[in-house]
């Protein structure tokens, strides 16, 4: 885990363990399971409270007033031999997370797909900040004259031949093999994956999505469905761990305020009716 102030390089499982210990220490309850569905229950009466039903895969049902979805995303990476096997080791995706660790080494940037050439080129320019030896593998992507000129201007090598796979020796990346058999020596390769949100719970609820297909949230993580918030990579493909944590904090504050706003008119009505207040 990189980029988390005070915890840079910490294994994610250790952060999770510490967080869970804090939650239980404050009296919170943790439930191990996978959520199958979330449904919004109809309100009963004008001043009734909002209710949502959370059903787990084992059939257990939880009833709650608000839901915060933080189900993250998955990375769709190129189907090239060796890419999946070296993922997160010396086949990297984020120059901000991994650039320092591979600084001053022979680096490669692999275009993921012909439809994402612009993003891949931008990735190459960012990676170039970490090394003077960077090669951009187009892998079938067509570069414009301007893109090619910009790469050359920054001394980024360009290889147009299709990539056949990664060459690994003694459990270490040694190079990138091209379709013509030539191997370009590299010790680490970056690729910008296609992020795919794990947002089925949100879309099944009917949460509004933008033109790019991602669920829309406001600055606090509120979705278009009453009582439902989302944070982190489920709705923000660029969120690093520290960003997602901040979004979760903002959502928690907003949820608490929303619950108080919902309770206030009910309390006033009870007061006027002579019912118990509190």
UniProtKB/TrEMBL annotation:
Keywords on record: Flavoprotein, Oxidoreductase
SUPFAM superfamilies named in the record: FAD/NAD(P)-binding domain
Catalyzed reactions per annotation: [thioredoxin]-dithiol + NADP(+) = [thioredoxin]-disulfide + NADPH + H(+)
InterPro entries membership: FAD/NAD-bd_sf, FAD/NAD-binding_dom, Ferredoxin-NADP_redctase_2
Domain named FAD/NAD(P)-binding: residues: 53-247
Gene3D superfamilies per UniProt: FAD/NAD(P)-binding domain (3.50.50.60)
Top-rank lineage group of the source organism: Bacteria
Descriptive protein name: NAD(P)/FAD-dependent oxidoreductase
């Amino acid at each position: 885990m990189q980029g988390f102030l005070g915890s840079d390089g910490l294994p994610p499982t250790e952060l999770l363990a510490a967080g869970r210990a804090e939650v239980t220490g404050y009296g919170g309850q943790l439930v191990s399971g996978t959520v199958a569905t979330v449904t919004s229950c109809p309100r009963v009466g004008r001043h009734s409270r909002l209710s949502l039903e959370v059903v787990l895969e084992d059939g257990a049902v939880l009833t709650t007033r608000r839901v915060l979805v933080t189900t993250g995303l998955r990375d769709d990476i190129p189907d090239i031999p060796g890419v999946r096997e070296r993922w997160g080791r010396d086949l990297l995706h984020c120059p901000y997370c991994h650039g320092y660790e591979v600084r001053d080494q022979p680096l490669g940037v692999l275009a993921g797909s012909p439809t994402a050439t612009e993003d891949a080129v931008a990735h190459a320019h960012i990676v170039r900040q970490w090394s003077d030896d960077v090669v951009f593998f187009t892998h079938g992507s067509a570069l414009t004259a301007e893109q090619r000129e910009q790469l050359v201007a920054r001394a980024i090598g360009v290889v147009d031949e299709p990539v056949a796979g990664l060459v690994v020796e003694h459990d270490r990346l040694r190079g990138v093999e091209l379709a013509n058999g030539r191997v370009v020596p590299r010790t680490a390769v970056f690729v910008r994956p296609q992020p795919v949100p794990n947002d089925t719970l949100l879309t099944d609820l009917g949460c509004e999505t933008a033109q790019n297909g991602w669920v829309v949230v406001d600055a606090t993580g509120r979705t278009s469905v009453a009582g439902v918030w989302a944070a982190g990579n489920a709705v923000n493909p660029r969120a690093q761990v520290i960003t997602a944590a901040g979004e979760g904090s903002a959502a928690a504050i907003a949820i608490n305020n929303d619950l108080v706003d919902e309770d206030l008119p009910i309390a006033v009505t009870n007061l006027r009716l002579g019912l118990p207040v509190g």
